[in-house]
Write a structure and sequence with these properties.
8 helices; binds S-adenosyl-L-homocysteine; Methyltransferase, Cobalt-precorrin-4 Transmethylase, Domain 2; Cobalt-precorrin-4 Transmethylase, domain 1; 6-stranded mixed sheet; about 270 residues; alpha/beta; 2 domains
Length: about 270
């Protein structure tokens, strides 16, 4: 009589990695799922846009704190090459670590989360993506303006102002034409190319189109200014706003009467 062999070893855990959205900065905006996952991590790879408060919450009270690797530009360091980050995630996950990649906002909104998920899955690593509140949405609440409104805007476009090296950037005139049809334009990474963005949009939209800029949305340092498309660049300079910031263009900005004040400090 043959008996089936008994295996005393527990099967090896499937290597896995979580891409976690840290939200815009306020730790109270983290999801419960993000926090639970963070608190189980043995290796944390942290972006430069992740707030200190979120990181502190992730580490608070841990008897065995995870290894934390900052992979951003903080402290004047050059940013870590993307290929290095992906190699580190893959090797640590294959070695059995509970790897968490903590990203500002949402991992799948301009966060290279897609590239990282592909690199991990190509190595047989299970990927879990946990949403965070993207800064483009945090900018909406910082201004007190909804991005959709039945009287002003029937949709939203999330667009990057920064094109990959060698790649064509967005066609701002086309996006401007869509904004003219009632879509709110939310521009990430637009500050470095603001003059070109403004010029492109002015090919399709009138200079009096409402615009706003929110720096550090969703943090205690949030600052915002409102202006028009025609005064966008000069308003940003006058108010000394810089990255990280969200630029918003669209008629929906009319929905907030209080936006008539030239500058707001949103704490
Ligand atoms: N995954 C992130 C976006 C990363 S791209 C998210 O979902 O928010 C980086 C750009 O995001 C910055 O250049 C800036 O345009 C925007 N950004 C990130 N954090 C921000 C914040 N707190 N306030 C305003 N803009 C922010």
């Amino acid at each position: 009589m043959t008996t089936s062999p008994r295996c005393s070893r527990t099967p090896a855990r499937t290597p896995r990695c979580a891409l976690v959205g840290a939200g815009p900065g306020d730790p109270e905006l983290l999801t419960l799922k993000a926090l639970r996952t963070l608190r189980r991590a043995t290796l944390l790879l942290v972006d430069d846009l992740v707030s200190d408060a979120v990181l502190a919450l992730a580490l608070r009270g841990r008897r065995q704190p995870p290894r934390v690797v900052h992979v951003g530009k903080r402290g004047g360091c050059r940013s870590t090459p993307q290929a290095f980050i992906e190699r580190l995630m893959v090797s640590a996950a294959l070695a059995g670590e509970r790897v968490v990649r903590l990203k500002g906002g949402d991992p799948f909104v301009f966060g290279r989360g897609g590239e990282e998920a592909e690199a991990l899955r190509a190595q047989g690593i299970a990927v879990e993506v946990i949403n965070g509140i993207t800064s483009g949405l945090a900018a909406s609440t910082a201004l007190g303006v909804p991005w959709t409104h039945r009287d002003h805007a029937h949709g939203v476009m999330l667009v990057t102002g920064h094109a990959r090296e060698g790649a064509a950037g967005p066609d701002w005139a086309v996006l401007g034409a869509a904004a003219a049809q009632g879509l709110t334009l939310i521009i990430y990474m637009g500050m470095a190319r603001l003059t070109a963005v403004q010029a492109g949009l002015l090919r399709a939209l009138p200079g009096h189109t409402p615009a706003a800029v929110v720096q550090a949305a969703g943090t205690a340092q949030a600052r915002a200014c409102d202006c028009t498309l025609g005064t966008l660049v000069t308003a940003v300079q006058a108010h000394g706003l810089g990255s990280p910031a969200i630029v918003v263009i669209g008629d929906v900005l009319q929905a907030r009467a209080a936006l008539a004040t030239p500058e707001r400090h949103v704490a």
